[in-house]
């Protein structure tokens, strides 16, 4: 089992940047594919990006070229660098394993003002 804690969210103006971090417990982190997900009110939680244990990445079309997912296996941490933020990026962001998910953390709120 992996315990996940997300942080780094906040309020930012459109065009700004934020860097999210997700600290994971558990010795199996380094072999897991990790994903960042987001959910805004009224919508289902969606996958934003994932990174495999060897660093291969994939992104949803709406964030390609703006977001970068990375990981530090020595620190059991996965990151999401978000640039050129848009109001439609406003959501609670979560990390979790991909594709089979474990228990969700509390998430971190990202709010982008126009």
Describe this structure in words.
This protein is an all-beta fold and 114 residues long. 0% of the residues lie in helices and 48% in strands. It has strands spanning 4-7, 10-13, 18-24, 34-39, 46-51, 57-59, 67-72, 77-82, 91-97, 108-113. The strands form two sheets. It has a six-stranded mixed sheet, with no helix packed on it. Strands 1-3-8-7 form a four-stranded antiparallel sheet, with no helix packed on it. A hairpin with a 5-residue loop joins β5 and β6. It is globular, with a radius of gyration of 13 Å. It starts with a strand and ends with a strand.
What attributes characterize this protein structure?
114 residues; 6-stranded mixed sheet; 4-stranded antiparallel sheet
What topology emerges from the helices and strands here?
Layout: E1 4-7, E2 10-13, E3 18-24, E4 34-39, E5 46-51, E6 57-59, E7 67-72, E8 77-82, E9 91-97, E10 108-113
Parallel strand pairs: 2-10
Antiparallel strand pairs: 1-3, 3-8, 4-5, 4-9, 5-6, 7-8, 9-10
What is the radius of gyration? 13 Å
User: How would you describe the shape?
Assistant: globular
Ends distance: 39 Å
Q: What is the average of the pLDDT values?
A: 95
Spatial strand order of the main sheet: 2-10-9-4-5-6
Give the class from helix and strand content and strand pairing. Answer: mainly beta
Task: Indicate the percent of residues in helices.
Answer: under 10%
Q: Tell me how many strands there are.
A: 10
Oligomer: single chain
Strand percentage: over 45%
Succession of helices and strands: EEEEEEEEEE
* Main sheet summary: 6 strands, mixed
Low-confidence stretches: none
Number of helices: 0
């Amino acid at each position: 089992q992996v315990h996940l804690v997300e942080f780094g969210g906040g309020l930012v103006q459109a065009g700004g940047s934020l860097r999210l971090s997700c600290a994971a417990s558990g010795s199996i982190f380094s072999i897991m594919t990790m994903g960042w997900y987001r959910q805004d009110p009224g919508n289902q939680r969606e996958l934003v990006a994932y990174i495999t244990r060897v660093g291969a990445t994939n992104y949803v079309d709406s964030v390609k070229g703006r977001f970068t997912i990375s990981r530090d296996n020595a620190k059991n941490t996965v990151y999401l660098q978000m640039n050129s933020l848009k109001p439609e990026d406003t959501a609670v962001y979560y990390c979790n394993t991909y594709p089979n998910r474990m228990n969700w953390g509390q998430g971190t709120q990202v709010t982008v003002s126009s």
